[in-house]
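Hypothesis: this fold can be encoded by more than one sequence.
Test: take the structure tokens below, design a sequence, compare later.
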């Protein structure tokens, strides 16, 4: 079955952000099919996983839900993203576009600085 226009645009947004994160020094992987959630879950909120060196030999992990607009991210997706991130000590991040620029905030509503 051919992929729809919405699927292609979403994949394009995810890839665009992935390469921007790579260029900023993150290691970033796209979760194909957004299957980053548990099997059988009603939502699969993890689009990207990004790792950033903390400068002390460790790293910080970010689980990222990518969307065109903040309003397109459901509360169920936020809750599942937060649950999965908390489980492994990652930061749950919502990434969406405002005025042609990426905005990042935690799934709980606090601003997140990703230095792109």
């Amino acid at each position: 079955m051919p992929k729809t226009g919405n699927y292609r645009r979403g994949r394009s947004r995810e890839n665009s952000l992935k390469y921007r994160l790579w260029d900023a020094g993150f290691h970033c992987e796209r979760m194909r099919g957004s299957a980053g959630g548990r099997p059988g879950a009603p939502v699969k909120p993890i689009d990207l996983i990004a790792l950033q060196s903390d400068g002390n030999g460790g790293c910080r992990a970010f689980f990222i839900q990518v969307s065109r607009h903040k309003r397109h991210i459901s509360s169920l997706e936020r809750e599942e993203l937060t649950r999965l991130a908390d489980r492994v000590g990652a930061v749950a991040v919502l990434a969406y576009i405002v005025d042609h620029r990426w905005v990042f905030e935690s799934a709980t509503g606090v601003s997140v600085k990703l230095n792109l």
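The helical segments are 5-23, 75-88. The CA atoms of residues 15 and 46 lie 13 Å apart.
Hypothesis status: open.
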